[in-house]
Each structure stands twice: as C-alpha cells, then as structure tokens.
Design the sequence.
C-alpha cells in the first residue's frame, strides 16, 4: 500500500508506531517498529498478520517468549569495522547473549512448528553459530572482561602482572614505614600516575625522596614521586601491561574476524531476531488493547471499530464503537450529520485502521471484520490553509482532490472530509457529485463526509453509492459517536441553535425560509434515523451475542481438552496405584510362600494355593485385564520397566510357555518373568515417555 507521509501524519500513524515500539523487548524490535510502514503486497500483509496472531497465541498460552538477551550488536559491528577496531569485550558478551536468544527461540519453536507455522518458519532462519559462541564463552567472562583463561599466554602475563604489583606494593610499604622518609610524605596512600605507582611527597622535600617525579598537585603543595627502589619493577610492570594489551587485542581481533567471516549469515540472523521482536511488540500491543486481525477479503466490513489513539487516551472501554460497511455493489459511502458528531473522527479511525492492518498490526474491531487490500490510500482530511502557497481552505482541498483524481488507481481507498464545503453550496454540491461520479467509474472505494443535502440525494439516486449518518440523540441533541448505514443524517443546525439560546422568532423565521419541502425532508430523515438507530442497536447486540457465543465455545473446547487430559491423568494415576498394590501383594505372597517352604507340606501347599487364588482374583479385575493385554503385547524390541532392577530395558527374547523374558539393560542381559515388568516406571511415567 502506498500512503504519503502527509496522510500518515494526518492519521497520526507515528503515534501508533511509538506505542508499538514501547512494547519491544530490545532496541532491535524498537528500530523495526519505528520504521514500520504499510506493506505493498497482499500475501505479505496476510503473512505479517498471521505472525502477529501466532505470537499473541503463544504469549497467552505460554506466558512468555524468550527475547531477554537481545542487543543491537549489528550497529556495533558496523561502527567497529568503520573505525578499524575489534569488537570490545562487552560487545562480544552481548553478541553471545543475542545468539543464545536465537538458540532459545529455535529450541522453543522446533517442536511447535506445526502449531505455529509462521513463527516456526522465522525460527528456521536463525543460525546459532556454535563455534563463535564457544570462542566468546571461553574468552569473555560474565562481567564483560577478557578472561585470564582466554589463552595460555594471557594467563602467564597476568600472573606476572600480579606478581610484579605485589612486589611493588611490598617495597612501597617499606618506604612508607621508613622513619627517615615518612615525615616527608604528604599522606600514606599509594597512587597511580601515568600507569606508574607513586607516593605523595611534600613539595619542599623533593630531594629527600630519591626517584622519578611523575606529577604535581594543582596547588603545588604535593609532588608524586616513584621511589628509585621500584623503578625497575615499574618498568617491568609497564612492559607486562603492554604485552597484556597486545594479547587482549589479538584475542579480540581473532574473534571479531570469525564474526566478520560469517557477517552475511550473522546479519541475516540479527535481522530475523529484530523482526521476531517487532512481531512480539505488535502482539503485546494487541493484547493490551484487545485487538483482532481483520480478514483480508473483498469487502470493507469493519464491525465495532474504535479509534486506537482515543482508546489510549480515554481507555478502551470508554470509546464508542462504530461500524462501517461497503459491501456488494456499493463503492461510495456518504456520511452526513451535524458538526462535532464524529464524522471526521470516523474517517480518521477507518484510515488509521486500514494503515495498521496493512502494516501487519491487529486492529480494534470485532472478530471476522474484513477489508480489501488497497494498493493506495488517499485522504483529504482537515481544513488547514496553505500559508506557503497562500491557498484558502477550499483551494487546499481542491488541490488534494485534483491529485486524487489524477493519481488514484482502481481499488484505492479514498477518504474525503467535508466534500463541497468552503464555497457556494450549489456549486460545491454540483462539483461534489461530479467528483464522486468520476471516482465511482474508476472503481475506487470512497468514504466521504458532507453537510450538503444534495449529496444525500445523490446517494439515494446513484447505484453504488450508500448513505450513512452519524447518530445524534434527538432528545438531548448530544452526539452518540456512532454511524448508521443506509440513512442520511440531518445537520441539526436549527435544533442546536435553539439549544444554544438563539431567539425563537429567529429559529421560526429560519424554518419558514427553509420551506415545507425542506422541513418534510428533515422530518423524514429523522424518522428513518430513529428506525435505523433501533436496528443498529439490535445488530450491535446480535454481534455482541455472537462474540460472546464464540468465546463460550472456545472456553467449552478448552474445558473439554482439559477434562480429557484430566481423565488420562486419573487413569494413569489409578494404574500407577494398582501397579504398586499389585507389586506389594505379590511380594507379600512370595515372602509368605518362602517362609512356609521350610515348614510342614500342608502349610506350603496352603501358601501356594493362596498365591494362585489371589492371582486368579487379580486377573479378572480391570487392572488384571490390562496387565494381561500388556503381557500379550510383549515382543522383541519392546521397552519395559524391570521392577526389581528399577530400570528400563528392551526385550530381546520372549518365552510365552514359561512366561519369561530376556531383557537388555544397557550392557547387561537379564532374565525375568512377565509379572516382574511393567509399562510404567516408579515415577508413574510411561516407559519410553
């Protein structure tokens, strides 16, 4: 969709962009949000809307999306390359964290790709660069410093630095504690000047402390001297520090070159992460204001829409919803009614919502609202005079209309506020009809507001043109900020004038001059409006009921799913409990039978008979039947849980005559009976699950 910057400014799209950008998790998403513009391809718009819808769903269902580690490292890469410098340790740490986020997203979306195909496809574009991440993890510590363990050389150099520093401090302590020198010191602190360790000496005692003068205080009362006792050690420390800086630079360059070698793939991954963060921002904006994705169809049918900026300023529940329809053969909607009734706000709201949807944003509307793909959006809204070209309000309007008539292609959406105003009403109406006729032939869709009565009549006469009216309470004369489709609206000029205190004789004189035809027409419109008001209220109630029914249906499906899961959980828990009971009974019987083996034969026979009887009873319970089915399904290659070993294994041989199994437990092969294995482990989890 092509939209001029002037139109976007009129519709306040920049404010929407800022609202979306504030929801992003990182500067990556904020940057893309601030660059957001309407998309020029219908399929890409649908893709972007679906990405937003999937992100809304995954956030609502899972509570989060892993974006915490993102940083704009691409900009830092560019700056470092232009400056001929390696990436700094902090940059590399942030770079690694950003790549880790890519890994987390891939892990999350891998198993969910069928459920979230658009986000899954975005996740497949992410690369994880394991070698680069390993190098950064090895070389950079969590505080953003080059680690001692980055290389053997660096570790050795830093050990030498620590040793030299300790020796220097030791010798300086000796100097500080010397009775002959202590009185010449300004204080007992060890300082650093130009990378050298120094003592603060009173300026008058310069000759009393031998060494190299490195600095002087601003007052001149103190000089900073490196005592001769540590000069050689200081030289060695300086050399070691130079070696350290060179080794650190070499390490940073080595990792930086690895990144530059894969710069194309790295930047592609960063751009994908930025787009995912932007999608997250769109979703969070939609969740906050309870927005929905419109259907990209053939008709403009926006139900229960609200101006998104008014929602932000006044609260989403305060703004009165409106509905706009251009369906079937209708291509032009003429909106009439009094000033301050909401005509201009309605035009701006529709224009802004179209721009938002064409940018991949959800919009404040009821579900199943639809709009076509518009190749271009034109708008003539506002009554500003042009100070630069000295054009009047009418001339400014006409200049924009001329541009629309010249440039608007078939299928465009055109918004015109107060068509025909600013000049003689008769001429304005005639010109307005001619303009609308031209746009109708061009097969554009037009929403136009006007005060001119003849344009209402034009909408009644002309095929493809429909009337609409901003609703106005005839009793209180207060605007209702709703739109009724199919009936024109009155300007309510006389009623408003009376309410504001115009003398009654003046109002009656105006009615007389208006004539009976005008009065009859106005009364007819008012009656039509009342009927339409009742109809629209009924329709709104039906839409609300439909919306509520869909919500209840969704809740019912969710409850059914949860009930099914609960049933499976209960069955599994029951199986687990029965399995434990079965094992306990079996163990008690075996112990009892074992104890009876050494006793009289009669007792041993009774123990065996008891065991067989209990086994027979258990076999005919639902659980026993389930165990029988499990035993019947035992075959080579099946995974089972071996109770006495507390481990899972794989069946390698089945002897059904003796009800014995040979099972591979890792590298060990064991033989056991059918009753000694189960399909669930001790934690109640299915084997292999």
Sequence:
């Amino acid at each position: 969709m092509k939209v001029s910057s002037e139109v976007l400014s009129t519709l306040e799209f920049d404010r929407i962009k800022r609202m979306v950008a504030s929801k992003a998790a990182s500067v990556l998403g904020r940057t893309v949000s601030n660059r957001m513009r309407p998309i020029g391809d219908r399929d890409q718009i649908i893709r972007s809307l679906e990405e937003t819808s999937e992100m809304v769903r995954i956030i609502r269902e899972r509570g989060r999306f892993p974006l915490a580690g993102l940083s704009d490292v691409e900009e830092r890469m560019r700056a470092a390359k232009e400056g001929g410098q390696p990436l700094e340790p902090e940059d590399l740490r942030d770079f690694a964290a950003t790549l880790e986020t890519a890994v987390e997203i891939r892990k999350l979306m891998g198993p969910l790709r069928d459920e979230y195909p658009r986000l899954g496809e975005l996740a497949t574009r992410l690369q994880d660069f394991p070698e680069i991440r390993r190098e950064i993890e090895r070389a950079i510590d969590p505080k953003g410093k080059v680690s001692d363990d980055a290389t053997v050389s660096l570790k050795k150099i830093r050990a030498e630095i620590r040793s030299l520093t300790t020796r220097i401090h030791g010798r300086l302590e000796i100097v500080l504690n010397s009775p002959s020198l202590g009185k010449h010191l300004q204080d007992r602190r060890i300082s650093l000047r130009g990378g050298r360790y120094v003592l603060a000496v009173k300026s008058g005692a310069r000759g009393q402390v031998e060494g190299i003068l490195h600095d002087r205080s601003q007052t001149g009362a103190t000089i900073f001297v490196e005592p001769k006792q540590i000069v050689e050690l200081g030289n060695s420390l300086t050399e070691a520090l130079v070696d350290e800086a060179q080794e650190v630079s070499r390490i940073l360059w080595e990792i930086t070159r690895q990144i530059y070698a894969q710069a194309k793939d790295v930047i592609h991954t960063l751009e994908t992460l930025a787009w995912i963060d932007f999608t997250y921002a769109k979703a969070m904006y939609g969740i906050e204001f309870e927005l929905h994705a419109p259907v990209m169809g053939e008709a403009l049918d926006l139900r229960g829409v609200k101006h998104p900026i008014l929602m932000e300023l006044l609260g989403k529940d305060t703004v009165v919803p409106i509905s706009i329809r251009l369906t079937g053969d209708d291509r032009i909607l003429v909106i009439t009614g009094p000033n301050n009734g909401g005509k201009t706000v309605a035009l701006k709201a529709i224009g802004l919502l179209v721009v938002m949807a064409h940018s991949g944003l959800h919009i404040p509307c009821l579900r199943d609202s639809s709009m076509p793909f518009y190749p271009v959006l034109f708008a003539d809204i506002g009554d500003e005079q042009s100070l630069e070209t000295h054009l009047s309000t009418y001339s400014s309007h006409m200049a924009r209309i001329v541009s629309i008539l010249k440039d608007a292609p078939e299928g465009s959406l055109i918004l015109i506020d107060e068509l025909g105003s600013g000049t003689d009403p008769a001429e304005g109406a005639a010109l307005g009809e001619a303009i609308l006729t031209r746009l109708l032939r061009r097969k554009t869709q037009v929403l136009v507001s006007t005060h001119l009565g003849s344009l209402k009549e034009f909408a009644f006469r002309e095929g493809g043109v429909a009337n609409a009216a901003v609703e106005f309470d005839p009793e209180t004369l207060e605007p209702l900020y709703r739109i009724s489709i199919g009936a024109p609206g009155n300007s309510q000029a006389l009623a408003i004038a009376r309410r504001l205190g115009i003398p009654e004789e003046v109002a009656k004189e105006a009615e007389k001059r208006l004539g009976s035809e005008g009065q009859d027409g106005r009364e007819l419109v008012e009656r039509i409006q009342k009927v339409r008001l009742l109809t629209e209220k009924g329709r709104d109630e039906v839409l609300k009921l439909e919306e509520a029914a869909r919500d209840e249906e969704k809740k019912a499906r969710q409850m059914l799913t949860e009930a099914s899961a609960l049933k499976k959980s209960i069955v599994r828990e029951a199986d687990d409990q029965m399995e434990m009971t079965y094992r306990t009974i079996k163990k008690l019987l075996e112990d009892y039978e074992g104890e009876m083996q050494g006793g009289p034969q009669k007792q041993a026979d009774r123990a065996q008979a008891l065991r067989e009887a209990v086994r027979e009873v258990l076999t005919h319970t639902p659980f026993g039947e389930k165990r029988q089915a499990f035993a019947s399904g035992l075959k080579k290659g099946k995974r089972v849980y071996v109770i006495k070993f507390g481990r899972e294994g794989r069946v390698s041989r089945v002897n059904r005559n003796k009800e014995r199994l040979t099972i591979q437990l890792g590298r060990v092969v064991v033989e056991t009976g059918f009753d000694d294995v189960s399909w669930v482990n001790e934690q109640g989890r299915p084997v292999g699950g």
User: Anything to note?
Assistant: The first strand starts at residue 185 and ends at 193.
